[in-house]
Write a structure and sequence with these properties.
Blueprint lengths: L2 H15 L12 H10 L5 H14 L3 H5 L3 H8 L5 H19 L7 H4 L7 H10 L10 H10 L8 H11 L5 H14 L18 H6 L3
Helix pairs in contact: 2-3, 2-8, 5-6, 9-10, 9-11
Amino acid sequence: MNTKDRYNKVIEYFSEHMPAAETELQYADPFGLVVSVILSAQCTDKRVNMITPALLKRFPTPQAMAGATPAEIFQYIRSCSYPNNKAKHLSAMARKIISDFNGQIPESVESLMSLPGVGRKTANVITLVAFGNPAMPVDTHVFRVSARIGLTADAKTPEAAEKQLVTHFPEKLLPLAHHWLILHGRYVCQARKPKCSECGLKTCCKYYRMNSLD
């Protein structure tokens, strides 16, 4: 099966079985999403969704959070991973939004990456989810699943995988495609023990073909 056919199979399958895929992070506005995505690093979406309501009730805007110290923010996020670093990032992020972007969340990946605590993957998530701009955030799930299926070839870094995925997925499908791959990685194509018996992509998956005893 060539690359084009494999992508077509993947698109066909997910379009039927996961037509409305979306982020599992709960947020009300772009600022809330930025906060949630920063908190989600090395932390589950479930835990982040438990933290953000109280945090964003206390600091609902960049202006409100910019006036808080990292120690004040820490009290609301202490149950997530790396709370000290994330509290510092959130405080500095809010101040930079005020000083550099007039209190508005920027849309471009480059501008988003200038915010403390926001790397390329995080910036791609924000521009894609909050603003609907075409992007392909590559986290550990997307990186693993795309390699296993054969959507990427010899991609050594997330950015290399991103370039291949953006090239082959139609631009209009990128918002869905990201969530297809991340959710498939979370619940089916898991890292240690992929649930191949439950997967509907066996006919086009390189990993299954190489490891199947059928």
